Amino acid sequence: QSALTQPASVAGSPGQSITISCTGSSSDVGGYDFVSWYQQHPDIAPKLIIYDVRERPSGVSNRFSGSKSGNTASLTISGLQAEDEAYYYCYSYARSSTFVVFGGGTKLTVL
Amino acid sequence: QITLKESGPTLLKPTQTLTLTCTFSGFSLSTSGVGVGWIRQPPGQALEWLALIYWNDDKRYSPSLKTRLTITKDTSKNQVVLIMTNLDPVDTATYFCARGFGSGYYLSGFNYWGQGTLVTVPS
Q: pLDDT for A37-76, tens place per residue?
């Protein structure tokens, strides 16, 4: 069982917006602004798309945005495109010996 | 250009020891704030962080696997090695190494990843 809770799946039509939640605790998501999100297509390594809650690495589309409220972080993808269909994982820095936690992953289906 | 690549055995038996090497280029593991970590992913399952070594040789381990893991670095060779002892079929997974970044010891995440290597431990 992963330390961060994500919905197993979400779906949306091309052009729509979707939001994926990532719920942790005050020891990780709620306690630090070191939340990141990763996109993973089948049989390919994860790709960083959001870090420090809302920052986008160079080259990542501005259709991807991040936010956080309390112990829950969120990834929003606007203007859905077929190429966005993938798994998405959240990550958080965590207190003391836990150090790092990932979410269980969310499968995004573009209808 | 930053690249990382994992290497090591692909098939091992239960109770054996796994040694994986991450060879990287395009950055130095002697730069403050930089680390290299290992993350694994069993087939069809989620990512699981295993270990990380910082630029100053400080190390962090997953609490659930700490007794079985050792991470080391060779800065001159641009390599990081992960050793996992007493393998079990549940350790079957793709193992990734990745560059960690952040502010000091606060790890913002992993911004570059290797392609991963599948390690199989048959039952």
A: 999 999 999 999 999 999 999 999 999 999 999 999 999 9
Which backbone phi and psi does A97 adopt, to 5 degrees?
Answer: -70, -20
Reading the block at residue B90, the tokens are: 């549940």
> Of B46, B96, B111, which has the smallest distance from its Cβ to A105's Cβ?
B46
Q: Are A89 and A21 in contact (CB under 8 A)?
A: no
Name the E strands within B42-122: 48-54, 59-61, 69-74, 79-84, 93-103, 106-113, 117-119
Nearest to A52 among B49, B108, B110 (CB): B108
Given an 8 Å threshold on Cβ–Cβ distance, is A91 in contact with B114? no
Which single residue is written with the structure tokens 């390919």? A44
